[in-house]
C-alpha cells in the first residue's frame, strides 16, 4: 500500500504564506500558497550561479497540492510575505515529500535592479468631435529594473537642440511589449521603446533598448 504524503506539510514548523507567479509572455498567473518553507543554499554545488550569487539565493519548498494546477518552471517568481521577489532558477520535484524544491535568486540584490519603472501602452480614443485622443494604459507598474545609458546623440527636436540618450533597460522578468505603441516611465521622464530581447538562457535578463527624447 502506498503512503499518502500530500498533507505532511501541515506538520512542518515555520511556514510562510507566499504568492507563486507563473510567468508567461501572454500574461502572468498568480496563485496564493498558504504554506511554503524556505531554506538557505549552503552547498556551492547546488547553487545555479556556482556560488557567485550564493548570498542572494534561497530554496523554497512548496507542497505540490498547494500550487496545483500550476507547474513550476525556471523564470517563475515566488513573492514572499514581505513582497520580495525570488526568481526561480532550478526546479525539482520530490516524490518522497510530494513537494517542489525551487532554487531561487533575488535578482534585485544580485544584479542591482534598483530602478522601478512603469511600462505604458498608447491607445487612441475617438472623441465627440471625431478627433482621436491618445491615452496611456499601464501594463507593468513598479517593475524592478536597471537603467544603463549606452549612448548620447545630439539632435534637433521640436525646434530645440538637445541630447537623445539610448539606454539598455535590464528587467527582473519577461514582459510583452510593442515598440510601436509602448513607452517607459522612469523618474518622471519618458523613454520610447525601440526593441526588446528575451534571452533563452535563465542566467541572462530580458533587455529593452529605449531612447530618452528631450
Descriptive terms for the model:
4% helix; mainly beta; Thrombin, subunit H; six-stranded antiparallel beta barrel; 2 helices; six-stranded antiparallel β-barrel; 12 strands; single chain
Description:
The chain has 214 residues and is mainly beta. It has two domains: 102 residues, Thrombin, subunit H; 98 residues, Thrombin, subunit H, CATH 2.40.10.370. The chain contains two helices and twelve strands; from the N terminus they run βββαβββαββββββ. A hairpin with a 5-residue loop joins β4 and β5. The longest helix is centred in the N-terminal third of the chain and has 4 residues.
Helix count, per DSSP?
2
Determine the fraction of residues in helical runs and give it as a percent range: under 10%
CATH superfamily of the largest domain: Bacteriophage SPP1 head-tail adaptor protein
Order of SSEs, N→C?
EEEHEEEHEEEEEE
Number of domain units = 2
Which architecture of the largest domain does the CATH hierarchy give at level 2? Answer: Beta Barrel
Termini separation (Å)? Answer: 72 Å
Low-confidence stretches: 156-162
Q: What general outline do the C-alpha atoms trace?
A: globular
* Alpha-carbon Rg, integer: 21 Å
Total strand segments: 12
**The CATH topology of the largest domain is what?**
Thrombin, subunit H
Strand content: over 45%
Summing up helix and strand content along with how strands pair, one would put the structural category as mainly beta
Largest sheet: 6 strands, antiparallel, barrel
- Reading off the top of the CATH hierarchy, the class of the largest domain is best stated as Mainly Beta
How confident is the prediction overall: mean pLDDT?
A: 84
Order of strands in the sheet with the most strands?
1-2-3-6-5-4
